[in-house]
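RECORD TYPE: inverse folding
INPUT: structure tokens
STRUCTURE:
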């Protein structure tokens, strides 16, 4: 009779041990992760995306593993060539064959939308650090996509207000003919009109255009005081160089609506000086950004841009969320991500909204003159810090089905 309690205790202990083993198994399984990074490695956006996106992701993994003994993280990298079908096929293969846990797109809105669709279908976490279209967090939002760095609303709103207030009240758009360009033109045009300006028209060009002469002729004949470049990467720099050769710039102001440090470096300060633009991040903001810039420079021999720093932050944020949630399950990781407050090298006030937008500060900057620049890659002077709630599309205007209206 006296043995019965001890036998019962032994059974309870055994059951408890099994329960602990069962709880430990998923936690242990979560410690082995695979991340897939897609970017433009060879095309028009390879300079602003490409290898720099991969380096940002690898630095994040390196830092995470230093803090997390016993974990392993494998990184897969591929070139989607700015093609939605290739991005979709690679994402599907990575999930079905390689078993990746998170996929990240580093450039191109058409590719980003394709990745998001597959990630939602397969229930995988998807971070996007390079697509600008607001469709990702608006009408085509999903429960698994986080748009992390910028979108066309952020890029356009304050730049347009500033230019219109300064006398640039009539605009013409030179627009890349795909989802990103269309969205950037639409959002900037609305901001111009809302600020009291007018839009005189637009012309659309194919991605990776070499000859902008016919498009610039139309911009010139519009008589608009501002030519808004709703394009990016090599298309933006080619358009700016062509405009200078054309003699367009003394009479009409060129505005790059998605410009990176790399673009200014390529153009040189004598060409780019004086331009206003909105950026989500800059390497010379503070001690943390400068320290990250130096680490990145050691590998790339150039300073990181906002997408490349965003890749570091996005991968760090994802890995920290998996560790906190103690699971690779996408739904539970997404729930943890929405509880996370992000304070790192990229942002000091970031959070992920219900529509998937990572809300964070941005900066209205002006490109320095050669005389103002004191060192290599010293290209911007900050005109204004823009709070996250001022540069994120208001939820009251959202068409995302995940958004609870009136909340």
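DESIGNED SEQUENCE:
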């Amino acid at each position: 009779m006296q043995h019965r309690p001890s036998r019962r205790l032994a059974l309870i202990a055994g059951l408890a041990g099994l329960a602990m083993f069962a709880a430990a198994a998923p936690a242990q399984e979560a410690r082995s992760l695979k991340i897939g990074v897609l970017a433009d490695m060879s095309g028009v956006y390879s300079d602003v995306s490409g290898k720099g996106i991969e380096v940002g992701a690898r630095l994040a993994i390196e830092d995470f593993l230093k803090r997390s003994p016993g974990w392993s993280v494998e990184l897969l990298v591929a070139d989607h060539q700015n093609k939605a079908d290739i991005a979709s096929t690679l994402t599907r293969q990575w999930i079905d064959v390689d078993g990746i846990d998170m996929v990240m797109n580093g450039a191109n809105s058409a590719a980003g939308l394709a990745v998001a669709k597959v990630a939602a279908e397969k229930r995988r976490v998807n971070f996007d650090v390079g697509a600008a279209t607001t469709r990702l967090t608006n009408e085509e939002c999903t429960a698994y996509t986080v748009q992390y760095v910028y979108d066309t609303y952020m890029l356009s709103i304050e730049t347009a207000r500033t230019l219109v207030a300064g006398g640039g009240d009539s605009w013409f758009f030179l627009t890349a003919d795909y989802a990103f360009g269309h969205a950037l033109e639409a959002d900037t045009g609305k901001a111009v009109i809302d600020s009291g300006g007018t839009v005189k028209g637009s012309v659309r060009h194919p991605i990776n255009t070499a000859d902008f002469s016919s498009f610039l002729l139309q911009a010139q004949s519009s008589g608009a005081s501002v030519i808004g470049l709703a394009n990016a990467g090599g298309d933006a720099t080619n358009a700016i160089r062509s405009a200078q050769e054309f003699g367009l710039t003394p009479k009409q102001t060129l505005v790059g609506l998605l410009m990176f440090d790399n673009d200014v470096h390529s153009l040189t300060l004598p060409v780019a000086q004086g331009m206003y633009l909105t950026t989500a991040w800059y390497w010379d903001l503070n001690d943390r950004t400068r320290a990250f810039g130096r680490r990145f420079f050691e590998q790339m021999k150039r300073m990181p841009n906002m997408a490349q720093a965003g890749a570091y932050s996005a991968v760090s944020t994802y890995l920290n969320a998996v560790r906190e949630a103690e699971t690779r399950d996408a739904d539970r990781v997404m729930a943890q991500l929405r509880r996370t407050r992000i304070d790192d090298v990229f942002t000091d006030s970031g959070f992920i909204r219900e529509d998937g937008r990572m809300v964070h500060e941005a900066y209205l900057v002006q490109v320095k003159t050669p005389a103002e620049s004191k060192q290599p890659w010293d290209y911007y002077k900050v005109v204004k810090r823009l709070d996250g709630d001022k540069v994120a599309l208001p939820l009251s205007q959202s068409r995302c089905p995940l958004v609870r209206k009136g909340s």
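NOTES: Confidence is low (pLDDT under 50) at residues 1-26.
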